[in-house]
Design a protein that fits this description.
The chain is α/β, with parallel strands linked by helices. The chain has helices at about 40-50, 65-80, 100-115, 140-155, 165-175, 195-205, 235-245, 245-255, 270-275, 285-290, and strands at about 10, 15-20, 20-25, 55-60, 90-95, 120-125, 160-165, 185, 205-210, 260. It is globular and about 55 Å long.
Length: about 350
């Protein structure tokens, strides 16, 4: 079995987080339904990831797989592969739990679903608050953050952070918080470099964690004409060949050299190892400059159904606003979707 060695980044509270993690979002199908049938594949791939050396697991209440994550962690501890303190486990509080008291309820529910005594990091999934009925609750994320500071003080979590916050929202948060977030998890890839946001976070000692680090390199049937860089782009293929790596490895290494942590997702064991095999080469300055030119501000994740809600963090686009998918409002957790 191939093993991987993943270095750490240091957070602003002194804790360390592996520079690359295993993402557990299974996604939605074309009907907007959660792809629950892939849960067994996730269990298998996550178990393998821990076996080969992954120590950073990223999940969320929304992902429905906290029970599966907890089962894998428990199994690997029982097998002696890892100790709990070897792992860095992140989850997230969803938009319908933005009242301070609901933050605590959400965190305790995540701990129960995963069978854990503490979490290493909990993130505010989005800065906007939406009820399960799809109503904008207009809860100030500063009030929500007070709930995060509370669970930190209680020892339920070791660190707290945010996700999908823009510079303006972070600036306001930093001016009014008691505890500075350790992380801002946002979409970052070759097409969406977000230089201003990354620079701001790094200036304020907030680690940027990149979700969707590949963007849309492999286009689906729904987005074959999108302006995202493809996995078979000739320039990318040439750079990858130069370093004896894959295009995906170049994309992840580029983020690492920017001081960004990544959480790629895959259900394929060979890709599990491939994604983490990026710490043995250095992209030179000329190639970095070439890669920077792919940045065209194209967002892969753009939930336009929220764009008229308070605290929507992205620029608005001129599209017909669709209804919020039911799968983003009401659900149960676990492979059988039967766990509260």
């Amino acid at each position: 079995m191939s093993k991987v060695v993943i270095p750490n980044f240091k957070l602003n509270n002194g804790l360390e987080i592996p520079a690359l993690g295993y993402g557990t979002w299974l996604g939605l199908n074309e009907k907007g339904e959660f792809i629950v049938e892939d849960a067994p594949k996730l269990v298998d791939a996550l178990s393998y990831a821990i076996d080969v050396g992954y120590r950073h697991i990223d999940t969320a209440h929304l992902y429905r797989v906290e029970p599966e994550v907890g089962n894998v962690v428990r199994q690997k501890i029982e097998e002696g592969v890892v100790k709990r303190e070897d792992l860095f486990i992140t989850t997230k509080v969803w938009n319908s739990d933005h009242r301070p008291e609901d933050v605590e309820k959400s965190v305790k529910a995540s701990l129960r679903r995963m069978g854990l005594n503490y979490l290493d990091l909990v993130l505010m999934h989005w800065p906007l608050s939406v009820s399960v009925e799809g109503v904008d609750e207009k809860i100030d994320y500063l009030d929500t953050w007070s709930g995060f500071e509370s669970v930190l003080k209680q020892g339920l979590v070791k660190a707290i952070g945010v996700s999908n916050f823009n510079v303006e929202q972070l600036t306001r948060l930093l001016a009014n918080c008691q505890v500075v977030p350790v992380v801002n998890q946002v979409e970052i890839n070759l097409n969406l470099g977000q230089k201003e946001l990354v620079d701001y976070c790094q200036k304020n000692n907030i680690l940027v964690v990149a979700y969707t680090p590949f963007g849309r390199m492999v286009p689906s049937r729904l987005d074959t004409t999108c302006p995202a860089i493809r996995h078979d782009d000739p320039i990318m293929l040439d750079i990858a060949k130069k370093y004896g790596k894959t295009v995906q490895q170049v994309a992840l290494r580029y983020l690492y050299q920017r001081g960004i942590c990544s959480i790629p997702k895959t259900l394929t064991k060979t890709r599990v190892v491939e994604n983490a095999s990026i710490f043995d080469f250095q992209i030179d300055d000329a190639d970095v400059a070439t890669l920077q030119k792919f940045d065209n501000n194209y967002r892969t994740v753009r939930p336009v159904f929220w764009q008229n809600f308070n605290n929507y963090p992205f620029d608005k686009v001129d599209v017909d606003i669709t209804e919020i998918p039911l799968s983003l409002r009401k659900w149960k957790n676990g492979a059988n979707l039967d766990i509260d």
